């Protein structure tokens, strides 16, 4: 009886340590976007003494952390706070991104479907320096990014070598609004 | 009562150990497994291009439209020299140590040339620095006009990334980048 009590405590301790470790890894490496939008920034602060958690966040997914020359943002909800779905169409709207290069990726969560991407070379920016991309699995007019046929989506935005924010003001990330659902 | 306290303390330490093992060991294991799957058949200190469909799995900031080249650096025997060849366009070259920390980076603006050289050497340990032992120092032997970086540990990962602005130019860009090599010794 005493052995069972001790073993149960040990198992609970190990399980608790594992679960808290996995939770810490999943939460680390992300912070709210600087503009207060629904984007989160995925970043490793090299000066943070606890950045082993943030680095572990990326490595646990088999990835290297974003280089310092790039800013990586991601989101899994639209402007209304609802989860992004593959059977819905969305519009990503923004001023032209203040970076030398950028890329928007749409990733199918919980699926092996390949991610789809739209980069600075793929889109047409309007005369007033506005950028609109239609995210939909059906053909759309204008800049169109065909989304994967998956139940849940994640959208990432990478800014490679963003211009000096002090000159450009606070970085305003794009909105991602639902257009329609099937 | 004392028995329960003993087991509670033991469980607490076991939990801390499990937490640390999860945070310190599992990410590295997952990363090494994925890297090994992407670099099957590639020798250390050799440069190769990742297949487009694999790029996003390893690098969260790239797309399958980009070109990504890797070199698995092995500093256990000697320094390694990376002779990179790049087109006249945006690109970046980054070196990560085994802990996943970025230890070196350079881009097209900083390099300002279509080829550049980076010598990577193993950083001296604290004990070696304190002892001041006069061992052969690779950093003192640099004879070219390239860059130099020290890496903690025996291994590192060098990543060369460039976006493809015109898909019709992809083959030509790949041909340029493929001339890159990593040489030990």
Q: What do you see in this structure?
A:
The complex is a heterodimer of chains A (182) and B (185). Chain A is an alpha+beta fold and 182 residues long. Chain A has a domain at 69-181: Domain of unknown function DUF1214, C-terminal domain (Jelly Rolls), CATH 2.60.120.600. Chain A is built from three helices and ten strands, in the order H-E-E-H-E-E-E-E-E-E-E-H-E. Chain A has a six-stranded antiparallel sheet with strand order 1-2-3-9-5-6, with no helix packed on it. In chain A, strands 8-7-4-10 form a four-stranded mixed sheet, with no helix packed on it. Chain A is globular and about 70 Å long. Chain B has two domains: 1-38; 41-184, Immunoglobulin-like (Sandwich). Chain B is α+β, with helices and mostly antiparallel strands and 185 residues long. In chain B, the strands form two sheets. A five-stranded antiparallel sheet of chain B has the order 1-2-8-4-5. The radius of gyration of chain B is 21 Å and the shape is globular. Chain B contains six helices and nine strands, in the order H-H-E-H-E-E-E-E-H-E-H-E-E-H-E. The N and C termini of chain B lie far apart (64 Å). Chain B has helices spanning 2-24, 26-38, 52-58, 108-111, 126-131, 170-177; strands at 47-49, 67-74, 80-85, 92-97, 102-107, 115-122, 147-151, 155-162, 181-184. In chain B, 33% of the residues lie in helices and 29% in strands. The chains are: A alpha+beta (182), B alpha+beta (185). Chains A and B meet through helix 1, helix 2, strand 5 and strand 9 of A and helix 1, helix 2, helix 3, strand 4 and strand 5 of B.
- Please identify the oligomeric state: heterodimer
Q: Main beta sheet of chain B, described?
A: 5 strands, antiparallel
What fraction strand of chain A? 25-35%
Shape label of chain A: globular
Tell me the series of helices and strands of chain A, N- to C-terminal. HEEHEEEEEEEHE
Strand-and-helix sequence of chain B, N→C?
Answer: HHEHEEEEHEHEEHE
